[in-house]
Amino acid sequence: MANFLGRANLVSGLAEGGAAQTVLGRIPLTRAAVGSAVLCLRPEQLRLVAGPADPASAGAEVIQREFGGATVTYTVRLKEGQPKELLVREPASGTLWAEGSQVQVQVQGAGHPLP
User: Fold this and answer.
1) pLDDT at 94 over 60
2) What are the residues facing 77 on neighbouring strands?
3) Positive or negative: CA dihedral 109, 54, 33, 36
4) Do 33 and 113 meet the contact criterion of CB atoms below 8 Å apart?
5) Which residues contact 102 (CB under 8 A, 6 or more apart)?
6) So where are the chain's domains?
7) Distance from C-alpha of 106 to C-alpha of 87, rounded to nearest angstrom
8) Which of 41, 57, 70, 81 gives 20 to 30 Å between its CA and that of 23?
9) Cα separation, 48 vs 90, whole angstroms
10) What does the pLDDT look like over 35-76, one tens digit per residue?
11) In whole angstroms, how far apart are CA 24 and each of 7, 11, 78?
12) What is the CATH number of domain 9-113?
């Protein structure tokens, strides 16, 4: 996680033009890149879902949740790959995941490759 960017997730991947292959699946990019890349993903861009493993998501366990009014911020630990932990911010009106829940992490929108 990167604090100098606000609360953000930094995810490594291999960029191929307009998308990058990462532990979270293939993610579209905000600008073209080629080769090794570090993507910035805001916690709001990640979603937790139940269900079996899917190539477009990554398996994880909820290890912490923090209520913040209209939102809930989860810390999840990936079952494999790097980074090991991600922040996910979801509306409090949605599914409330308990600590220990087994989930899939999906990305919504594009990742921003850092220079």
Assistant:
1) yes
2) 61, 85
3) positive
4) yes
5) 59, 60, 61
6) 9-113
7) 12
8) 70
9) 8
10) 999 999 999 999 999 976 777 678 999 999 999 999 999 999
11) 18, 8, 9
12) 2.40.50.140
